[in-house]
Amino acid sequence: MFSYAFKKYIRGFHNFLPFIVISLIIELVTLKIFSLQSAGNELINAIQLGKDIDWNMAVSDPKFKGLAVTFFSIIAVSLLISPILSNYINLIIKEILDKKEVRHIETLKESFRFYFPSIGVTLTIGLMLLGLLVVSVLVVVLIPFLGIIAAIAGFIFFIYLAIVYSTSVPYLLYYNSTISEALHYGKEVGRKYFWRIFGFLLLINIGSQIINLPDTTQILAFIIVTLLTISLNILSKTYFLTLCKGYKHPEIEYDHTYDNEDKDDDNF
């Protein structure tokens, strides 16, 4: 099924360019805002160079307080914008998978409609994982002799739940479902394709680590790394949406279906 997703990703890549440009601009603006803060510039350089940082002195520095305000302001804006952009690119991918005409303005407007449902699904999963983490920590603290076993079991179950529910938001967007349906059927998709998702995420993580190896203090290197990271993120979304489509249309797993789709894609 990955080959199906990858073909769609390559053939429809030109439709991703608006999202890529917007995401790159946001990253560059964020970098520039931090760089304008002298404390931020010094702190970023220190972190990138692996230097020891005196956090007590840094916190007492007025310039650091300005950096903190900037940092939390950016987080607040990101919380407002990120779900919309994520919904937008997911809906663009859905149109490509369904061989529909891509209409960016209409799709962007539609992404607002999924704003609260997608946040609801994400928040529910986040609280579930947080609850598991809290329970695991309590077991380790209150029952020391079960500490290692509880920690390992909690970690494994945490990974399992994170993978199983990773397709819930894509399911919500692909099938225009309710929050409860997205959680239920998204979990079913995750369970059905668990090992595929696990292997894919492992490869994506390795790829991300390799991409981030170069020194990004130079602006050109930062742009290249950011573009590669965004492209990898779009590929991940394409694969997850393909799994959601494959849950009800398993025929896309078989190579012989590509021949007919390739003919259609030539006119796409």
From TrEMBL:
<protein>
    <submittedName>
        <fullName>Glucan phosphoethanolaminetransferase (Alkaline phosphatase superfamily)</fullName>
    </submittedName>
</protein>
<feature type="transmembrane region" description="Helical">
    <location>
        <begin position="67"/>
        <end position="93"/>
    </location>
</feature>
<feature type="transmembrane region" description="Helical">
    <location>
        <begin position="217"/>
        <end position="235"/>
    </location>
</feature>
<keyword id="KW-0812">Transmembrane</keyword>
<feature type="transmembrane region" description="Helical">
    <location>
        <begin position="148"/>
        <end position="173"/>
    </location>
</feature>
<feature type="transmembrane region" description="Helical">
    <location>
        <begin position="193"/>
        <end position="211"/>
    </location>
</feature>
<feature type="transmembrane region" description="Helical">
    <location>
        <begin position="114"/>
        <end position="142"/>
    </location>
</feature>
<keyword id="KW-0472">Membrane</keyword>
<feature type="transmembrane region" description="Helical">
    <location>
        <begin position="12"/>
        <end position="34"/>
    </location>
</feature>
<keyword id="KW-1133">Transmembrane helix</keyword>
